[in-house]
Design goal:
about 230 residues, alpha/beta, two-stranded antiparallel ribbon, 6 helices, about 20% strand
Length: about 230
């Protein structure tokens, strides 16, 4: 996926603190994976539409926390032309410039795995390998399960799901988008806050001056810089 290396970026983390009571969530996933519906569940309103052709953002207040949700269409959709892909890629980078608390990859539980592995690779190529620490699987269509999620994942027919969960450090959550339950939202936010504390803050992408002003926003990679003023340090 890395097509252009002329854009230099720097990755760092900022500390999570009571003075920064915000959570920023990026939702990624293929079409019909329950991605937009999950965003609507978190926001508790029908903000996002299915098969949207641009990156959208919504926000809501949950207790003392301001929650921002970014809904990104499937950028690997073969129906998109190159111009559409580049436009949405630039929108995505712009929306994520304020930092990310979590990247949620939506996967429907009762459907075969499709291009989720490619989407994971795309995320890491775009934002750099350190974003891996912030990726969590969000399983959707939980209402269709007739067993527990643990039993479902252990089944021999779901090795592909097991592999994706393992690749994301065992981090996952389940959503039933047919119900309006604050519990599933609170549990998700609790998991996200826990990972932010573990990672030392939000994931921040800081775009540095590019050597070519006309270069497309294609390749974003880098590492945490311990010496950066915005870094959590050690």
């Amino acid at each position: 996926m890395a097509e252009d290396s002329s854009s230099a970026t720097e990755m760092s983390a900022i500390s999570s603190s009571p003075g920064d009571p915000t959570i920023r969530i990026l939702l990624m996933g293929r079409n019909d994976s329950g991605r937009s519906s999950s965003g609507n569940t978190i926001l508790r309103e029908n903000k996002f539409k299915k098969h949207e052709s641009e990156v959208c953002e919504g926000q809501t207040q949950i207790g003392d926390i301001q929650v921002y949700v970014i809904d990104c269409p499937d950028l690997l959709n073969p129906d998109l032309n190159k111009e559409q892909q580049e436009m949405m890629k630039e929108q995505l980078v712009s929306r994520c410039s304020a930092g990310l608390s979590s990247v949620l990859l939506t996967i429907p539980l009762e459907q075969p795995v499709q291009n989720e592995e490619e989407i994971l690779d795309y995320i890491k190529c775009l934002f750099g390998p350190e974003v891996q620490k912030y990726i969590m699987i969000l399983f959707t269509y939980e209402h269709e399960l007739d067993q527990t999620i643990a039993e479902h994942l252990k089944h021999k027919d779901h090795v592909d799901l097991q592999r994706l969960v393992t690749e994301c450090g065992g981090k996952f959550h389940c959503f039933n988008n047919r119900i309006t339950s604050d519990n599933q939202i609170q549990e998700l936010l609790h998991k996200i806050e826990g990972k932010m504390l573990e990672n030392g803050g939000k994931f921040i992408m800081k775009q540095m001056k590019r050597s070519d002003s006309k270069a497309s926003l294609v390749n974003f990679s880098g590492e945490f810089s311990a010496g950066d003023p915005g870094s959590s340090g050690s």
